[in-house]
């Protein structure tokens, strides 16, 4: 071989120092040492173990190395090899080893191997130092980033990034300071009306833009000493300094009028509104409690209809507590199997026979009493009006509606084995109608139960369909494609448009009971019903009149040509086990 030189060692040092980790540096050192010394095998040992090997399998070399000092190495497929090693590191940390066939290393080669080992040790020390410095730098950068993020989060916790208004945290701090003063303080809790419709139809970016404009209008309605805040979502709060409730009410109405004006969003005029609750307090009031009182009053305003202002009264607390209890119980009810279905037959008015049933949900809420069996409303059952509006509001109606659909579908499939013409009507809420999974839920019910699509009619209230007719038409089209029937429930109580009624793919009109609420319908009542029946015939729709409670009403509806009827005179809602008997013979004559 050629005599080694300082240049060779410099190249070796540069090559070994290039990697940024020990493993790579050791691998380079082994490869270069074996190459320069023309060795078949190269390796680095740590302790008694081979860490990196070249020219032979590491485990094979590990097992073949002699336990003590030796100059010969035997490996399968290779001649006896002459081996030599050199330690590296200030304290012996390892050895650089080479093994080659033929002549052993001469003194100059051994000197070169020793120099390479020392160079490797220096390189590893340097890498360890650089690694420690890099880790220290990364740790400092991470700590600096965490401090910056903490500062940013603290700022965001106090100021809303979207509107620039104080957040709930800062608002409560300001309110707590004001409540240390003797002057009265009023809090307005502002909840936007119809904001979700804007967000859903125009997108979240448009919704964020709208919230920014709302914040600006709120600021414009306030004095410099007052404070506006974004509490979360589409909810805002206003602190009126040195103001009692009597003076807070005009401010609330001023805010409502400001928010009623159109907003220019995404190139179009957008109309929303607001409902506002007011609560007032002085020294000694808790800030959280006062804001909570305003929230309770806002909820009452929402119940009264959009665009209302309500001042908090202590009695509202009991209502709020009852509502919270009802919400908690309702969330538990589905998992605890507390819902029951009763079925009210649809009676063909000419024959008096039952042709189908409408599924009616009841809640066997613990503590309400003990349910009775055959006829509704059983004692201890919570009627739909007692919990469905709340379920609609908090979104639970989707899960409840899915349970009703599947349970009633399975029950109807069982009855149809004996009464193959039996049909099932199921009520559908507005939230269900706009749920992207609803059509799939209906299809899955048909598949799982084996019901033909024509056996199910979905009932939707007129107010739901007419509140957004375009969306309703699109949603109903998917259901129509499945082949299920569609009915408008409570027809005549909403604000229907005949032009949209023609476009809605419905099969049935259910005439609201309000039109025959008298024991003997008047001429005016009958005229309205006759008009609806004639309209239905023109549109080729079935008619079902609800609330038939007397024989006179039954006779009048039959004379007017109504197809079907429901009501206590015809048949009360029944427990499932009583349905077969109801279909066995005519129920009325």
Query: Can you count the beta strands?
Result: 20
Shape, please? elongated
Average predicted confidence as pLDDT: 86
**What's the arrangement of strands in the largest beta sheet?**
13-14-15-16-17-18-19-20
Secondary-structure class? alpha/beta
Question: What does it look like?
Answer:
This protein is of the alpha/beta class and about 600 residues long. Helices cover about 45% and strands about 20% of the residues. The chain is built from 20 helices and 20 strands. The strands form four sheets. The chain has an eight-stranded mixed beta barrel, surrounded by four helices. A five-stranded antiparallel sheet has the order 2-1-5-4-3, sandwiched between helices. A five-stranded mixed sheet has the order 7-8-6-11-12, with helices on both faces. Helix 18 links the parallel strand 18 (about 510) and strand 19. Helix 1 (about 5-15) runs parallel beside helix 4 (about 105-160), helix 2 (about 20-35) packs antiparallel against helix 4 and helix 12 (about 395-415) packs parallel to helix 14. It comes from Actinoplanes subglobosus. This is Bifunctional diguanylate cyclase/phosphodiesterase.
């Amino acid at each position: 071989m050629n005599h080694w030189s300082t240049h060779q060692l410099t190249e070796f040092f540069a090559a070994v120092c290039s990697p940024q980790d020990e493993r790579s540096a050791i691998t380079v050192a082994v490869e270069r040492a074996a190459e320069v010394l023309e060795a078949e095998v190269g390796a680095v040992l740590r302790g008694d173990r081979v860490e990196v090997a070249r020219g032979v399998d590491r485990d094979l070399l590990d097992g073949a190395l002699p336990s003590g000092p030796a100059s010969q190495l035997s490996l399968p497929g290779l001649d006896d090899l002459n081996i030599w090693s050199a330690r590296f590191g200030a304290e012996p940390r390892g050895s650089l080893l080479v093994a080659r066939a033929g002549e052993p290393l001469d003194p100059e080669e051994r000197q070169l191997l020793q120099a390479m080992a020392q160079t490797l040790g220096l390189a590893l020390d340097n890498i360890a130092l650089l690694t420690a410095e890099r880790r220290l730098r990364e740790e400092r950068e991470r700590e600096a980033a965490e401090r910056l993020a903490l500062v940013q989060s603290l700022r965001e916790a106090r100021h809303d990034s979207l509107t620039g208004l104080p957040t709930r945290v800062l608002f409560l701090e300001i309110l707590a300071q004001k409540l240390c003063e003797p002057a009265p303080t009023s809090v307005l809790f502002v909840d936007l009306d119809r904001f979700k419709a804007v967000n859903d139809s125009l997108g979240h970016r448009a919704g964020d833009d709208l919230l920014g404009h709302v914040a600006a209008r709120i600021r414009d309605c306030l004095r410099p000493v007052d404070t506006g805040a974004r509490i979360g979502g589409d909810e805002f709060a206003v602190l009126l300094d040195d103001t009692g409730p009597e003076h807070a009410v005009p401010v609330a109405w001023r805010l409502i009028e400001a928010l009623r004006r159109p907003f220019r969003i995404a190139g179009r005029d957008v109309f929303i509104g607001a409902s506002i609750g007011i609560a007032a307090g002085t020294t000694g009031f808790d800030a959280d409690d006062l804001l909570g009182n305003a929230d309770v009053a806002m909820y009452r305003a929402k119940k009264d209809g959009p665009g209302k202002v309500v001042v908090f009264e202590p009695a509202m607390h009991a209502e709020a507590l009852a509502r919270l209890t009802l919400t908690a119980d309702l969330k538990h009810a589905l998992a605890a199997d507390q819902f029951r279905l009763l079925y009210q037959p649809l009676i063909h008015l000419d024959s008096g026979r039952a042709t189908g049933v409408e599924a009616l949900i009841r809640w066997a809420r613990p503590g309400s009493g003990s349910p009775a069996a055959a006829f509704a409303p059983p004692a201890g059952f919570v009627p739909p009006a007692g919990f469905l509006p709340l379920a609609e509001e908090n979104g639970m109606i989707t899960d409840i509606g899915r349970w009703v659909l599947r349970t009633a579908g399975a029950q109807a499939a069982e009855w149809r084995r004996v009464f193959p013409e039996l049909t099932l009507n199921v009520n559908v809420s507005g939230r269900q109608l706009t749920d992207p999974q609803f059509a799939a839920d209906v299809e899955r019910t048909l598949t799982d139960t084996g019901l033909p699509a024509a056996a199910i009619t979905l009932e939707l209230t007129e107010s739901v369909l007419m509140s957004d007719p375009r969306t309703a038409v699109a949603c109903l089209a998917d259901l129509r494609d499945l082949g299920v029937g569609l009915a408008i429930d409570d027809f005549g109580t909403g604000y229907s448009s005949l032009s949209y009624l023609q476009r809605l793919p419905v099969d049935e009109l259910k005439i609201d009971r309000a039109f025959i609420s008298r024991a003997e319908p008047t001429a005016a009542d009958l005229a309205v019903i006759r008009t609806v029946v004639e309209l239905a015939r023109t549109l080729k729709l079935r008619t079902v009149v609800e609330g038939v409670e007397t024989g006179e009403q039954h006779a009048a509806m039959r004379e007017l040509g109504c197809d079907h009827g429901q009501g206590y005179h015809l048949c009360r809602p029944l427990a499932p086990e009583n349905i077969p008997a109801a279909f066995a013979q005519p129920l009325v004559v």
